[in-house]
Amino acid sequence: MLIIRDTGKSTSIFGSVNHERHIMFKPAQIILLGYITVILLGSFILMLPGMTAPGKDLTFIDAIFTSTSAICVTGLIVVDTATFFSFWGQIVILFLIQCGGLGYMTLTTLIAIGLGRRIEYRDRLALKQTFSLETPGGVVRFTLNVLKYTFTFEAVGAFLLLLNFIGRYPLPKAVFASIFHSVSAFCNAGFSIFSNNFENYVQNPLVNLILCFLIISGGLGFMVLKEIINEHRILTLHCKVVIRVTVLLLLAGTLLILFFEWDNPNTIGPLSPGYKIMTSFFHAVTPRTAGFNTIPISSMRSITLFIVIFLMFIGASPGGTGGGIKTTTFALLLGVVKGVAQEKHRVEYFHRRIPNEIVYRAVAQTVLPFLLVSVISIIIMSYQPNNPTQIIFEVFSAFGTVGLSTGITPTLFSLSKFLLVIMMYYGKVGLLGLAIYPVKKDEKECILYPEEGVQL
């Protein structure tokens, strides 16, 4: 809802403005417009001279695609990040990934605090929605903790990766590769400056485990990280649900991928049993919106691809760096099914009853993306001469902000790329997109209609 207010001066994290009239946006609209602004800015910067390798020119649609993929921490690429972009272009992509992983509101808050500016209540509400917090109270302190956790995890990850890279590459490249991939992993981005991603490290346990640790840590959500790091004796319901569903999905994903790919000669077939388990675990972790791969995704069997699609659709947890419908949403859907089976009219977890409002939101957060993904997939399949499974996989990867691909992304038509841009953006902002519809306060539940059932 847009409100025109008369005022002499307004102060926010975006600075002080003196004018008689200004437009006041809702917090969700600030986030939506902010991401669009950063995406466009990143696109124009990537098209500047010196951002690409000599002889390489980046088209506008590819610039938009790359910037959106980085800001939405997706990892889908239309050009090879390793060879197409110069060092400075890769630096820009790294910054966009970090901005997308933290949320641009986090970075603007950090800048505002550094400049000594006051954080307005409106900005606190925007931060609350960025991290899916219940109240804006203490949100600035929480934001500072987010920055501390992020840079600590990324620094530790970069150091451990450096120990593996330092013997393989010249020192400058080893240092940059360590930092780039640590940030990309923790932010669940999936961008890599290796042309074949991490396929050369399929039998390197340390690199696999380091990346998995960073991906899982970033995907758990900052609220869960705070509870675990602070060693809370009594975990909140949110934390318990996130941990339970995360473990369930990782275990189920590992076993299913291991079972269906066990004798696939193009993926894990040639590996020893130990490496088969490790690789299956890695590819159960990476669909949690990370996008790295150690085996060719295009060589997976169709049934495995659909398992990965399912994992990508669920994604990470609220308040983290990943996308998807979220683990808590999936848990509530299972709770609804369980409640129906037990003839209960409520959803319960750990002896706690979930409010109906949250259950309804979970349903909407599942149905709307699924419908959008279906429509976009049908549109692309109507003119794109690719295997339908590959197209469906690509669209789900875009929505889940995962970045895994069967390799068709660079060959897509411009319209298909634009539709994937929309999916990546929607996957990042989620139901905040509903904020574009103005709703008056007096329109909310003014009338309570009589009940009448329908056949199911």
**Total number of strands:** 6
Please, what is the average pLDDT?
Answer: 83
| Distance N to C terminus | 37 Å
Q: Sheet with the most strands?
A: 2 strands, antiparallel
Structural class: mainly alpha
In which order are the strands of the major sheet placed? 1-4
User: What is the rounded Rg?
Assistant: 22 Å
Question: Low-confidence runs (pLDDT<50, min 5 residues)?
Answer: 1-23
Please describe the topology of this protein.
Elements (H helix, E strand, L loop, with lengths): L2 E4 L2 E4 L2 E4 L2 E4 L2 H20 L13 H12 L9 H4 L2 H16 L1 H11 L6 H10 L8 H27 L5 H16 L18 H16 L1 H8 L7 H25 L11 H13 L16 H13 L12 H15 L5 E3 L2 E3 L1 H26 L6 H12 L14 H16 L27
Antiparallel strand pairs: 1-4, 2-3, 5-6
Protein architecture, described:
Helix content is 57%, strand content 5%. The chain is mainly alpha-helical and 456 residues long. It is globular and about 70 Å long. β5 and β6 form a beta hairpin. It starts with a strand and ends in a 27-residue tail after the last helix. α1 (27-46) packs antiparallel against α4 (87-102), α11 crosses α14 (327-341) and α16 packs parallel to α17. The chain has one domain (3-436).
